[in-house]
Amino acid sequence: MAGIDAALQEHLESGHTTLCHAWRITRSDGVTFAFTDHDLPLVMEGAEYRADTGLTARALVQTTGLSVDNTEALGALSDMSLREDEIEQGRFDGAEVVCWLVNWTDVAQRKVLFRGHIGEIRRAGGAFRAELRGLSETLNRSYGRVYQKPCTAVLGDGDCRFALDTPGYAEARPVQDVSDMRSFMWDGFQGFEAGWFTRGRLEVLDGPAQGLWGIVKHDRFDGPQRVVELWEPLHGPVGSGTLVRLVAGCDKRMETCRLKFDNIVNFQGFPDLPGEDWIVAVPRSTAPNTGGSLR
C-alpha cells in the first residue's frame, strides 16, 4: 500500500492483524463526531472514537487520475450520535469526512483511506445512508460566467461586494408569531416598504434552530401585521421570542441594483445583451435594422 508507514506495513505483513476503521466527521459549524467499527472505543489525537454507533462503510472505490473516489457510510440514527432532526436541518451537508485504517492495539499505526465530504443522505427505518464524495469531486463542476441580462452574483458575495450590514438593509428582531415554520408575523413592524425582504433571507440567530435560514417568498402587510413567508418551512423549531435576522432581497435586475442598493458598479449581468430577434435579423434596404421584430 503506497504511502503506508513502516510499522503498519510490518503489521500487515505479519499475517495476524488487528485492524479496524475509524471515521471523523466535522460539520461546517465546527461540531465533530468520531466513530469506529471496532467493538471498543479508540482514542486518537485527543478524540474518542465511539464504538456504539453501528457506523459501517461499504467498499471504497478509489481511482487514479481525476476520476471521483466515492463510498457510502451506513449507520443507525440515535440521540447519542447522528440525529434525524439535524440531518433534516442540513447540518451535515458538505461535512468533512476522514477515514483511517487503524491497528487498534497501537493507534499510532494508521493510514488515511479516504478524505472528502458528505453528499446525499437518505434516511429510513431509524438508519441512514450517507454518500461520501472524494476530494476530486470538485473537479467535475462547471465553472465560468453565464451571459444573461439578470445579475449572476449573490447579494453580499465576493462578486456583488455589497455590505449586508449597511444600515437599512438588515433587521434583527424576535419573532412574535409563527405558523408552520414558514410564515412569520409581527405587529408594528414598520420602517421598510412592503416587499423589501422578498427574495431575501430569514436567518435564525438563537434557539434550537440557530444557523438555519430560508429564502423569503412574500413580504407583505396584512392589516397592521407584517407577514414574511418563506418558500419552504424551516426544518427546526422556531417559536415566539426567537431572534431572527431579515436581509433585504434582490431580484437581480439592473434597476434594482442601481436604485435599491446603489451598487451598479458591481452589477454582474449583461443588461444590453441583444435578444433573439436581433440574432436572426437580416439586412434590408427599406428601413434601418434596429434589432426589433421583422415585419
From TrEMBL:
Pfam family name, one: Phage_phiJL001_Gp84_N
InterPro entries hit by this protein: Phage_phiJL001_Gp84, Phage_phiJL001_Gp84_C
Domain Bacteriophage phiJL001 Gp84 C-terminal: 195-277
Entry superkingdom: Bacteria
Coiled-coil boundaries: none
Entry-linked NCBIfam families: phg_TIGR02218 (TIGR02218)
Official protein name in the record: Bacteriophage phiJL001 Gp84 C-terminal domain-containing protein
Organism: Sulfitobacter alexandrii
